[in-house]
Amino acid sequence: MFHYKQIIPLQMGDNVIGRYQKGNPINTAFETVDPSVDLNHCTITVSRDKRGNLRYTLSDNNSNTGTFVGDVELKPRERRIIEDGTLFTLGATSIILHTKEDSED
């Protein structure tokens, strides 16, 4: 399945990611025709570490098809720190985390 490129903006705190459907109350939905992406698939938590740098933590929300970082599936209740350039997969949909931190563009 090929989809068009989308930018999914993240905010501080919990960003619940899933397939867009009218009435779905999650805060970070994206458009896809991939039925293997749950409506409430995973969460990226954005926080700051002790040095004040942004930290991105990925966890699966008990999805039907799992959340993978590279080719490794996250275990139940596992929280994985991801960084700029990390490829993760929801169902058959791949997402790459791109951060703007420390960028002067």
Structure description:
By secondary structure, the chain is mostly beta strands. It is built from no helices and nine strands. The strands form two sheets. A five-stranded mixed beta sheet has the order 2-1-3-4-7, with no helix packed on it. Strands 6-5-8-9 form a four-stranded antiparallel beta sheet, with no helix packed on it. It is globular, with a radius of gyration of 13 Å. It starts with 12 loop residues before the first strand and ends in a 9-residue tail after the last strand. The model has no long low-confidence stretch (mean pLDDT 89).
Question: Main attributes?
Answer:
single chain, 0% helix, 105 residues, 38% strand, 9 strands, mainly beta, 4-stranded antiparallel sheet
Q: Helical percent range?
A: under 10%
User: How many whole angstroms does the radius of gyration measure?
Assistant: 13 Å
Q: Hey, roughly how much beta strand do the residues contain? A: 35-45%
- Cα distance spanning the termini: 32 Å
Q: So how many helices?
A: 0
Question: What is the residue-mean pLDDT, rounded to a whole number?
Answer: 89
- Which regions have little confidence, pLDDT < 50, spanning 5+ residues? none
Brief write-up:
This protein has 105 residues and is mainly beta. Helix content is 0%, strand content 38%.
How is the secondary structure organized here?
Elements: E1 13-19, E2 28-30, E3 42-48, E4 54-60, E5 67-69, E6 72-73, E7 80-82, E8 87-90, E9 93-96
Parallel strand pairs: 1-2
Antiparallel strand pairs: 1-3, 3-4, 4-7, 5-6, 5-8, 8-9
